[in-house]
Amino acid sequence: MATRKSQSQPTRASQRSAASQSSKHVPPVPRIPRLLVGRAALVTGAGSGLGRGIAEGLVRAGAKVALVDIDLAAAQETCAGLGPLGRKACLCAQADVTDETQVAEAFRRAVDRFGHLDICVPAAGIAPAFPLVDFPVGPWRKALEINLTGYFLAAREAARIMIRQGRGGSIILVSSKSGLEASKANAAYNATKAGEIHLARGWALELGPYGIRVNAVAPGNVFKGSKIWNPEYIKACARKRGIKPSEVIPYYVGLTALGIEIQPEDVAGIVVWLASDAARVITGQVIVCDAGQVFVR
After folding, report:
1. Spatial distance between the Cα atoms of 218 and 176, rounded to a whole number of angstroms
2. DSSP letters of 211-228?
3. What is the per-residue DSSP string for the chain?
4. Closest Cα to residue 222, out of 180, 262, 178?
5. Which residues, in sequence order, are CB contacts of 41 under 8 Å at separation 6+?
6. Which pLDDT tens digit goes with each residue over 255-270?
7. Of 121, 115, 100, nearest to 171 (Cα)?
């Protein structure tokens, strides 16, 4: 979500995006390197959007993955989409990430199935979009529960297991560029995504002595397969920017320096790298993967 464009600019941004896509080379979607053979992971929110894309990337990188989602059928769809590879490498588990008993049970099942746990990626999240003066307290509290308590419960369980194992590990929180640069009429998402970044930093300090690395990724707008970017959310963004719903995606793509749409595979590749030994000295960091929209300075 962007904050520094006036409502007189969307049409130009949309035109610029369309022109840039057609006039320059757009790199192909990256292939996921097999950096995680022998590793076991758990991903929350694995039934759709970034959670699904990250889980698929981890499997393609060689990891065995527990696909956790409140919608079990959606997690099973993720597994089925991977074909024979998914049937061999995946465990599907239903859990409400705000319920500590259900979260603990999902982790128990993962360890029972795989024998160990090396990677945890909390990715379940929601983004209720309201102006401050109209923001109902119910959606506000639900966002805090899923986006913060859900991450806390997953990271706590993963840390307990990894400490017992004594073999280190990697916890990667899926934050957002909105955690670095706030977006208009998106208070709960802004606050929780910023909170996730600071959780990662604090946990990196706590868990470093055990060889457990904690990092965050801060993706830009990833539209493919997203439940956040649903028709109602797109309409809210259109109203906020004074544009048509059909112009929303080209508008946001046009805000990036590269002018290309971010794919789940782009984010998955970064998560795979962070989880691998190639990133063994990286902890407490935020990797911004937004095609050049928000610059950390």
Report:
1. 4
2. TEEEEEEEE----TT-SS
3. ---S--TTSHHHHHHHHHHHHHHS--PPPPPPP---TT-EEEEETTTSHHHHHHHHHHHHTT-EEEEEESSHHHHHHHHHHTTHHHHHHEEEEE--TT-HHHHHHHHHHHHHHHS---EEE----------GGG--HHHHHHHHIIIIIHHHHHHHHHHHHHHHHTS-EEEEEE--GGGTS--TT-HHHHHHHHHHHHHHHHHHHHHGGGTEEEEEEEE----TT-SSS-HHHHHHHHHHHTS-GGGHHHHHHHTSSS-----HHHHHHHHHHHHSGGGTT--S-EEEESSSSS---
4. 262
5. 55, 58, 63, 64, 65, 66, 117, 118, 119, 120, 121, 275
6. 999 999 999 999 999 9
7. 121
* Catalytic status, residue 251: no
Residues 217 and 269: their CA atoms lie apart, in Å, by: 11
Q: Tell me if 225 sits within 8 A of 264, measured CB to CB.
A: yes
Q: Residues with Cβ < 8 Å from 4, sequence gap 6 or more?
A: none
Catalytic residue, chosen from 151, 189, 233, 251, is 189
d(C-alpha 98, C-alpha 75), whole Å: 17
CA-CA-CA-CA torsion sign (97, 45, 222, 155): positive
Residue carrying structure tokens 């746990």: 117
Look at residue 1 in the predicted model and tell me its pLDDT.
40
At the top level of CATH, which class does the domain 34-228+264-284 belong to? alpha beta
Name the pTM for this structure. 0.88
- pLDDT tens sequence across 91-137: 999 999 999 999 999 999 999 999 999 999 999 999 999 999 999 99
**5 closest CA partner among 247, 233, 286:** 247
6: CB partners within 8 A, 6+ apart: none
Q: Do 178 and 190 touch, CB atoms closer than 8 A?
A: yes
